[in-house]
Amino acid sequence: MSAETKETQFRHVSYLWDNKKAAELEGDEVALLIYRSNLLGADLRLTNYGGGNTSCKVTAKDPLTGESTEVMWVKGSGGDLGTLKKSGLAALYTDRLRSLQQVYRGIQHEDEMVELFNHCIFDLQSKAPSIDTPLHGFLPFKHIDHLHPDAAIAIAAAKDGKRITQELFGGTIGWVEWQRPGFDLGLQLKRCLDEHPGIRGIMLGSHGLFTWGDTAYESYINTLEVIERCAAYIDEHTKKKIIFGGRQREALPAEQRQAQAAALIPVLRGYCSSNTSMIGHFTDDERVLQFINSKDLGRLAPMGTSCPDHFLRTKISPLVLEISPDADCSNPETLKETLDKQFSSYRQFYADYYNKCKHANSPAMRDANPVVILWPGVGMFTFAVNKQTARVAAEFYINAINVMRGAEAISQYTSLPAQEAFNIEYWLLEEAKLQRMPKPKSLSGRIALITGSAGGIGKAIAKKFADEGACVVINDNDAGRLAEAEQEFADKYGKDVYIAVQLDVTDSATIKNAISKANLSFGGIDIVVNCAGLSISKPIEEHTEADWDLLYDVLVKGQFLVTQLGIDIMRKQHKGGDVINIVSKNALVSGPNNAAYGSAKAAQLHLSRLNAAELGKDGIRVNVVNPDAVILDSKIWAGDWAAGRAKAYGISVEELPSFYARRTLLNEIILPEDIANACYLFVGGLMNKSTGNVLNVDGGIAMSFVR
Hints:
Layout lengths: L2 H7 L9 H6 L4 H14 L10 E9 L6 E8 L13 E5 H6 L13 H4 L16 H5 L5 E5 L2 H7 L4 H9 L3 E4 L6 H13 L5 E4 L3 E6 L2 H23 L15 H19 L6 E5 L2 H7 L4 H4 L7 H7 L4 E2 L15 H22 L14 E4 L3 E6 L2 H24 L7 H8 L2 H9 L10 E4 L5 H12 L3 E6 L2 H15 L4 E5 L5 H15 L4 E4 L14 H29 L3 E6 L12 H21 L4 E8 L7 H4 L1 H10 L6 H7 L9 H12 L10 E4 L10
Parallel strand pairs: 5-6, 9-10, 12-13, 12-15, 13-14, 15-16, 16-17, 17-18
Antiparallel strand pairs: 1-2, 1-4, 2-3, 4-7, 6-7, 8-11, 10-11
């Protein structure tokens, strides 16, 4: 059968195999394993992000004996199939792994087997083996795929899943009841195959699917065919049934959903950040809307998810808001009583779940706040320690919705019992994995809006904050410059660290739009850096009224508007925050040809002091960084300002950098990164009890010393 025929055979999965590409890898089974894995991971209908694992068994020369031996290459702990490389594979002696059966003491002791996997490693440079390693090792097939496709899990989580699997596949797919992944489940898979020789795969109750083949291609095709049949079966039944019991309520129009979500998410973020500062994510995906607006929401949502990959990322169950979709969110105080009650109830529910299910050696209870929050009529919010984790949590809950929809279409959805869910969530091996994760960076969980951040000082600050773990909102009034900065940030940081939005600090509508996008993308704002600026250097007789208005609009009014709208979000979060104003040594030093600019900078400085005095009660710190003569990548110095300053000092433009350096006590040229480091000093955690301060970063100019 040709590739074209194969491709048209599939309607619910993507056939991506390229015979030419595969031919280039012929003879290298490990390379073909990686190729197959990447294809499977590229289609999220086949497996979710980070979920599933694949393997192949090859004959290799044993470096200790020189004899041929079978080696299993299997996806190691962590990582994602879609981006899997050889460095993400574990390589083990197959015979040694299987010989561990001789020392296995039973299911009560299976966790101790994980350390023994290390005694089976063939390639010492390979990835650490995962808990699923024996599931591949105890099956004899050369190539094996273990995936978590929504269509298969829908059958695996259905009340009649075993019967449906038997009838749908005519006995060619085996069935193993739910059991936590581990050594014993590997033995259960082997037993199922021994009892049903000739089957093409095994369905794991409430979990996922195992399929295999003698070659990488045979395994790939077998996997696609099984999942295609599952999906087609569900699709056929879905067309005959009212999904989720039908519609209970209408969703708000799209624009209104976005506006309501942007208004409420900072409030929700505040509640969810009661222990650790969280980053938010919002989606009003059609699948989410169908579920949250349905009659069955109240029955299905509390049941929680089934697949371990799902509830490890989404918690045992979501919080469903009891707030009208068109509620007035402009004043969160009107919603406080309802939200206080709902969050208190959820935290108590989670504590009760923990206390009821915990074991003597269970890890301490983790954050009791919800990860997934459903707002009927509007959409779904997810919160986690960083944007990627929050986004992936949303993706996994959509997977769970797909599973519930499919299971309800063909039978009745069943979730894991609370004790089984707890045993996965608080599994000591999962806890050990969490403890091995890198320590969060100092700005992890924080969101910063830096005005004028497409270049110069602003871009340096945004980069510094992103490097230290923050999510950043880069912006500029120059669309071309912003596009260049956006590409730079995309290349360096990826989509989960930044957003880019056009913003004019003199136009409150664009500021509100930028803040709304920050809310929808990340959940709110913790840090505002007022950095946008311009300079005009003229003798007083040459200054125009337009010059004066422009300087005061951008520097003073702009700082006021951005601060005013930014602290509104901070207050909704009840998390405190930081405002940093990039002012200038000119706020403190008098000089020629500088009346409008210098006085505007002085106004910025005093406005900062006034804000610090007013906002302390909210836990919002306001501090000032005073740069001087930061020329690199600055639009200010690309215009007439440089010529004006050179003229004022009787030197050429080319002499300005060295001139400014010579007049400092330290004889230093000031760079954008120097200002960024000063800003980080204020927000990095060491200055949390400091507000109303001025930090000069000018190389040392005695006239600008704060007296």
